[in-house]
C-alpha cells in the first residue's frame, strides 16, 4: 500500500487574528473573542498576547479578566470568520479535494495524490502557509506525517506559524517520547490517572498489552495500543457530517453541591451555544450526560417545540434534566451537554445535519 501523506492545518488564534488583522489598533494587544465577562460568557479564542497571561479558549470570561485585567473583549463576528474560513478552504482545494474540516480553523488534508503533482507533502504545506499569509494576512501552523493523529500533534508543536514534519521512520519513536498529556483526546483527568499508574510517556503505555489498556481505559485502550505504535488507519473524510454539537468536562474533584453543578452547566451551555453560532445552527433536542464518581453514567434528553441556539435555553433545560436525577445522593465526576436535531432555517419542517465541507 502507498504510504499516506497527511497534513493538519491549524489557523493560529483564528478569530483573534482576524480581529487584529481587520483592526490594526488591536495588534499587539491582549484580546479575547467571546462573551463578555458575565456569569455565562466564555472565551472562544484568545490572542497570543492574552495567552501569555494564561487566558485560553473555553475559559469563563470572568476568569480571563482576572488573569489579564487589560484584556479587550471582542464580540464574535461569526459571519466574517466563516467567510475567511471558506477562503482558506479554497486555498486547500488548489492541492486536493480530500479535505476533512474539524472546525472553521482546522482541517486534515490527504495529499498522497495531489492536483499539482508535488511529491513533497512538506512542499505543499509550505505553499499553503505562504498563500494564507500573502493572500489573507493570517498565519497557520502545519503538521505533516503519515496519519491524522501524528499530523495533528505535530501542528501544535511550533505554534504560531510553525511547520513540523514527523518522518515515517520517526513516528514510532516520536510516539514513545510523547508525554501522555500531549496525546490528542487525553484530558487532564485521564492524564492524572495515567501518571498515578506511572504511565508518563507513550513508551510507558507501549509496555502494556492491549488487554491491560482496555481494562484500565475502556475502549480507548485499544486506540492507545495502536497509536503508540504509530498505527492510525482513519481516512480523511471530506463529507464528514456531524449530527450533534456538545461540550463536556471531567472534574478534578467530584461535585456534590447543586450550585456548583449549575455553574458548570452554565459554562458548558455557553460553550455549546458558541459552537452552534459558529455554524448558524439551531437545534431542538438537548441531551445531558452525567457520570458519577462510581463511573455509572446516564443521559437524559428533551426535545423542545422550537429550535434554539442561545445559552439561556440550553442551560435552563440542562438544569431541569439534572434536577430530575439523583444528584443529592451521588457525587458527579463528569457533566456534558449536547444539542442535536438541527433545523434547516430554509426548511423548518425538516431536520438538518451539519456538513463540515
From TrEMBL:
What are the protein's GO molecular function terms? damaged DNA binding; DNA-directed DNA polymerase activity; magnesium ion binding
Q: Required cofactors, per record?
A: Mg(2+)
Entry's family note: Belongs to the DNA polymerase type-Y family.
The residues that the entry says bind Mg(2+) are 10, 105
Q: How is the cofactor bound?
A: Binds 2 magnesium ions per subunit.
Heme keyword on record: no
Site (Substrate discrimination): give the residues.
15
Using the UniProt record, give the first listed, main subcellular location: cytoplasm
Q: Which Pfam family, any one, appears in the UniProt record?
A: IMS
Q: Where is the UmuC domain?
A: 6-187
Q: What is this protein called?
A: DNA polymerase IV
Gene designation: dinB
Q: State the UniProt keywords alphabetically.
A: Cytoplasm, DNA damage, DNA repair, DNA replication, DNA-binding, DNA-directed DNA polymerase, Magnesium, Metal-binding, Mutator protein, Nucleotidyltransferase, Transferase
Entry's EC annotation: 2.7.7.7
Q: Name one GO biological process term.
A: error-prone translesion synthesis
What does the record give as the function of this protein?
Poorly processive, error-prone DNA polymerase involved in untargeted mutagenesis. Copies undamaged DNA at stalled replication forks, which arise in vivo from mismatched or misaligned primer ends. These misaligned primers can be extended by PolIV. Exhibits no 3'-5' exonuclease (proofreading) activity. May be involved in translesional synthesis, in conjunction with the beta clamp from PolIII.
Cellular component GO terms, alphabetical: cytosol
Q: Which locations, inside or outside the cell, does it occupy?
A: Cytoplasm
**HAMAP family registered for this protein in UniProt:** DNApol_IV
Quaternary assembly: Monomer.
Amino acid at each position: 500500500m502507498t504510504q499516506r501523506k497527511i497534513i493538519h492545518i491549524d489557523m493560529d488564534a483564528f478569530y483573534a487574528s482576524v480581529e487584529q488583522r481587520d483592526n490594526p489598533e488591536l495588534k499587539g494587544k491582549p484580546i479575547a473573542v467571546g462573551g463578555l465577562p458575565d456569569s455565562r460568557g466564555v472565551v472562544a479564542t484568545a490572542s497570543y498576547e492574552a495567552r501569555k497571561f494564561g487566558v485560553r479558549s473555553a475559559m469563563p470570561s470572568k476568569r480571563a479578566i482576572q488573569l489579564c485585567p487589560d484584556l479587550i473583549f471582542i464580540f464574535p463576528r461569526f459571519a466574517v470568520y466563516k467567510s475567511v474560513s471558506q477562503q482558506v478552504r479554497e486555498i486547500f482545494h488548489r492541492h486536493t479535494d480530500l479535505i476533512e474540516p474539524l472546525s472553521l480553523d482546522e482541517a486534515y488534508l490527504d495529499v498522497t495524490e495531489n492536483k499539482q503533482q508535488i511529491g513533497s507533502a512538506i512542499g505543499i504545506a509550505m505553499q499553503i502557509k505562504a498563500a494564507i499569509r500573502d493572500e489573507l494576512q493570517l498565519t497557520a501552523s502545519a503538521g505533516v506525517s503519515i496519519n491524522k493523529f501524528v499530523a495533528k500533534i505535530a501542528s501544535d508543536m511550533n505554534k504560531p506559524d510553525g511547520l513540523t514534519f514527523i518522518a515515517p521512520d520517526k513516528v514510532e519513536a516520536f510516539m514513545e517520547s510523547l508525554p501522555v498529556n500531549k496525546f490528542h483526546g487525553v484530558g487532564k483527568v485521564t492524564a492524572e490517572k495515567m501518571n498515578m499508574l506511572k504511565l508518563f510517556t507513550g513508551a510507558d503505555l507501549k509496555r502494556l498489552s492491549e488487554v491491560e489498556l482496555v481494562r484500565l481505559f475502556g475502549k480507548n485502550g485499544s486506540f492507545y495500543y495502536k497509536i503508540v505504535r504509530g498505527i492510525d488507519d482513519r481516512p480523511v473524510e471530506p463529507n464528514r457530517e456531524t449530527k450533534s454539537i456538545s461540550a463536556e468536562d471531567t472534574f478534578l474533584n467530584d461535585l456534590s453541591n447543586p450550585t456548583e453543578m449549575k455553574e458548570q452547566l452554565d459554562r458548558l451551555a455557553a460553550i455549546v451555544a458558541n459552537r452552534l453560532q459558529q455554524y448558524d445552527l439551531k437545534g431542538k433536542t438537548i441531551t445531558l450526560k452525567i457520570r458519577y464518581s462510581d463511573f455509572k453514567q446516564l443521559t437524559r434528553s428533551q426535545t423542545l417545540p422550537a429550535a434554539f441556539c442561545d445559552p439561556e435555553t440550553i442551560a435552563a433545560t440542562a438544569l431541569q434534566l439534572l434536577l430530575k436525577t439523583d444528584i443529592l445522593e451521588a457525587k458527579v465526576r463528569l457533566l456534558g451537554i449536547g444539542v442535536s436535531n438541527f433545523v434547516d432555517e430554509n426548511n423548518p419542517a425538516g431536520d438538518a445535519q451539519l456538513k463540515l465541507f
